[in-house]
Amino acid sequence: MDSSLKDNIKVIAFDADDTLWANQPYFDDAEDRLCSILAEYGEPRYIKSELFKTEMQNMAELGYGVMAFTLSMIETALRLGGNRLSTSAVSEIYSLGRSLLRIPATPLPGVKDTLEKISRSCSYRTIVITKGNMLDQERKLECSGLKPFFDHVEIVSDKNGKTYSDLLAFLGIGASELLMVGNSFKSDISPVLNLGGYGVYIPFHTTWQHEQTDEYDHPNLFRADNFRELENIVL
């Protein structure tokens, strides 16, 4: 990032799940376990497809996060298994969902050191903007040990153009003064670019199907292979 751009950016916003700590791998493992529990009702590919369909149908009412995922798993199991589904299977699926509330939220490599350097630079305000269940996201941020590095935390029901427009208004800055860092091109990067802001895209090795989208080049877009490379962009 050139010096004039560094001078212009006032706020760096960070996604949380799969940007600051791993999250999706635990959900992937849960899906695999669900397929094992429901093996007599279909192949893994079919069960995962049915689960995703249920999640999308429930999105408007349940939103994102562990609670929504758990209810969607149980609903999918009841639909596929019908009267043949045992109470022990339902109990196992429920316990599987509850286990996701204990995701350790260990910072990914380079995250803590880089955030510390950004904080010491006193060059930017730093915030977290994440979607999901409020209690769960607050717990993960607390457990990660990263909370002291952020001036503000925003937990939202979705990330789209309106979400970021509202955030800009709350922060009292223009779009060109915001740099968003995240692993989801669809939710973290594209909406900010469309508003005239800047994005640092750090892909994660696994992405939820709902977050997959076509990527594109943009003059305000930076790409990084890992979190440490953020230092070369903002410091």
TrEMBL record:
Xref: InterPro entries: HAD-like_sf, HAD_sf, PGP-like_dom2, S-2-haloacid_dehalogenase
ATP-binding is among the record's keywords: no
Molecular function as annotated in GO: hydrolase activity
Pfam family, one: Hydrolase
Entry keywords, A to Z: Hydrolase
Protein name according to UniProt: HAD family hydrolase
Organism: Candidatus Cryptobacteroides faecipullorum
